[in-house]
Design goal:
The protein is an alpha+beta fold. Helix content is 39%, strand content 27%. The protein contains 3 helices and 5 strands. β2 and β3 form a beta hairpin. The longest helix is centred in the last third of the chain and has 13 residues. The chain is globular and about 30 Å long. The N and C termini lie close together (6 Å).
Length: 88
């Protein structure tokens, strides 16, 4: 399963200290998220990836404390459920 972030034009991302606000124009919903969601969306904006590739890309760009593929998959499924990430 591959995942891709929604189109950048469809999202308004505003960092606020430790949290980030993401306005999803298609649904009209604003999501308040914390790390690693902004980082996931940043990496997936460039290209669609499966979980192992995304985990490797996140590890290369950011300091990951505990890289867990199952936790990342669960987070991606949550993001897909609210429309911030697309499955493909």
């Amino acid at each position: 399963m591959q995942y891709r972030a929604g189109a950048r034009a469809a999202l308004r991302i505003v960092p606020l200290d430790l949290l980030t606000l993401i306005y999803h124009r298609a649904s009209g919903q604003t999501h308040v998220v914390a790390s690693p969601v902004p980082e996931i969306l940043d990496v997936l904006a460039d290209e669609a990836m499966d979980v192992p590739a995304l985990l490797a890309a996140l590890a290369a760009r950011y300091e990951l404390g505990d890289a867990d593929a199952d936790a990342l998959t669960a987070r991606l499924e949550e993001l897909a459920a609210v429309g911030l990430v697309e499955r493909g």
